[in-house]
Write a structure and sequence with these properties.
elongated, homodimer, DNA-binding, Rossmann fold, 12 strands, alpha/beta, 4-stranded parallel sheet
Chain lengths: 342, 342
DNA sequence: TCCGGTTATGAAATCGTTTCCAGTCGGGTT
DNA sequence: AACCCGACTGGAAACGATTTCATAACCGGA
């Protein structure tokens, strides 16, 4: 395949390069005849601009980037999609940047800044830990979505999230109300992950309020994939048949756990109750449908975009809490064995 | 945040720009002391290269791109991951480019070519239709993964896939062997999509061979999401209670269908049998586990990469067929009502 | 006829890198 | 002492676009 530059096009069309550039960018100050001639040549050659050169030269005024950590996470990529949609209502252009789970958002932010002059960021799938001070040092407006930045002390970061602690507490309350006192919690490593930590605390709040003890051994750290959850659950339940309910920190994990229980001959919800988290499609269509906490995607997206645009115009940081919703499914039932006992 | 260029770094370190460049790119011909001094300044400033400028200048020799159409499709993104892994064994560097379902791969290919000199492509989630002649016109080595390019006449395109027609036929054979004669097929729009068309033909082959009629009304076109499949199924089964088995063209679709049936009071597999396609995690962990056709991800990935590298070195186009595998699940059982009849 | 004011156009500078090329500086050979 | 060679280094020319600025052409009005 031939490789054309704007100069080739200019030569073929018998005009100057600047004219071609003007045509390509839809500038008004080109005569109709010239425009047509250039357009024809461009089409004929299948010419496309070299983005590298373009971006190098055009230091765009300011725009915002949504950084999604983990492209396989449906919950996050749906959210990003929604944000893009909301962003249409603002004059600031938004773009989405997917990065891998392993690599860090700060490099990506820096990159986006000096390649394209990104002036603000929405962080999805991020967490707040010691490394977050980098966000502060960058000094650019940021919004943490689904993460609470209220106590972080980062001056340039807003956040929007549900009250994870209260949500987890409500979930546990419901399990307790169903008579479950032997509950296992399946989550991620909560050290250095404020989100998991908050949910854990919520669950503990509930247990404490009801005077129920929690054996730390019943907190299971798992990968957030079906296979990971399944394997963790198989291993865990080998030696923990006393458990009658599982609070999982994502719908995917809940699904994996349910399958594992099923294979062990334990029915959900008859023998064991299981709850999920996030409110994904998966929870709705799994059999049994999974009781879950819906994080209002649309609202979080809308608020995140709004908050970032506010800050870009000089507004102060703010933390917004949106309402979560407990979505009943078919995976929680009264505890039989407990009833017998009691 | 300050914005640094390589020139700033050079000035601060008291060296020339070319030296900084050499350090940044790990060239050997820099004295250790200089290297250290430059590195220090770079770290201190948090300097990152401007990729635009870099790519603009460095016309890399040749490398290959994997174009994935649809970033939400787990099956495809897993495959891409696997390809990247296989590619490490070759000297050609590979990169992955995700594009949206709506937009076309040809623009992306052109873009990648003249921005980065991509010399070859693997197309994932593509299909072969009239627009594919663009692939031919580009004239660069391409590999269609999970799509058969054998009869396409595109001189520069190899392909690797399972025998979709035979696979679909086997699935239908198994359903028939279980006594199901009233089968519905849930798939995508097969006009202009060779993959769906091939699977459809396979299913028809089987029916024909067994002398079973197929009512074209029983081919249901659906979106390939849980919600889409669920809704299609709800709608379809309102008026089609005679159906005792569903052949779905993806695991996701199968899951949505199973849920819909369940809500209509039809048990899988007792009342209706359902089969999926692809062999994803989902199929394995759904309840009931879904009978499916496993497309050997690793092998397809490995062959695709191999084929592309072959072509890059001047080899001829080839079409490779890899073995599929029918993975039994828990979603197919003998047809009760049919048994009663027969 | 001359002039101010559009309108359309091209030449040239610029963006931040890489890389070629030429040059400096020691130190070992003749 | 003259020479060469190797290891380092810096200057400057690209890369392919955009954008500023200057110029040419044209038009209507005085």
């Amino acid at each position: 395949m031939e490789i054309y530059t704007i100069r080739d096009i200019a030569r073929k069309a018998g005009v100057g390069v600047s004219t071609v550039s003007r045509v390509l960018n839809g500038r008004p100050d080109v005569s109709e005849t010239t425009r047509k001639r250039v357009t024809e040549v461009v089409e004929a050659c299948g010419f496309v601009q070299n983005r590298n050169a373009r971006n190098l030269k055009t230091t765009k005024p300011v725009f915002a980037a949504i950084i999604v950590r983990g492209r396989r996470n449906m919950f996050l990529s749906d959210m990003a999609e929604e944000m893009l949609h909301c962003a249409q209502g603002y004059k600031t252009p938004f773009i989405v940047k997917y990065i891998d789970e392993e690599d860090d958002e700060f490099g990506a932010m820096r990159q986006l800044w000096n390649e394209k002059r990104a002036g603000g960021f929405i962080l999805l799938g991020s967490r707040i830990d010691e490394r977050s001070e980098i966000v502060a040092s960058l000094g650019m407006p940021c919004v943490f979505a689904t993460v609470d930045a209220a106590g972080s002390g980062i001056a340039n970061a807003s956040s929007v999230c549900i009250d994870d602690r209260a949500a987890a507490r409500e979930v546990m309350d419901r399990l307790l109300a169903n008579g479950h006192t032997n509950v296992a919690v399946f989550g991620g490593n909560s050290e250095g992950n404020d989100v998991f930590a908050r949910r854990y605390q919520g669950a503990m709040d509930s247990l404490r309020a009801h005077g129920v003890d929690f054996n730390p051994e019943h907190y299971v750290v798992t990968r957030f994939t079906l296979t990971g959850a399944y394997e963790s659950a198989r291993r865990f339940f080998e030696g923990h048949r006393e458990i009658t309910a599982v609070l999982a920190m994502s719908d995917t994990v809940a699904a994996g756990v349910i399958r594992a229980l099923w294979e062990l001959g334990l029915r959900v919800p008859q023998d064991v109750s299981v709850t999920g988290y996030d409110g994904t499609e998966m929870a709705k269509y799994f059999i049994p449908a999974i009781d879950t906490v819906r994080q209002p995607t649309k609202e979080i997206a809308r608020e995140s975009v709004k908050l970032l645009c506010e800050m870009l115009e000089g507004g102060e940081r703010r933390d917004v809490t949106v309402a979560y919703e407990y979505v009943p499914g078919e995976s929680v039932a009264a505890c039989r064995s407990c009833a017998r006992e009691g």
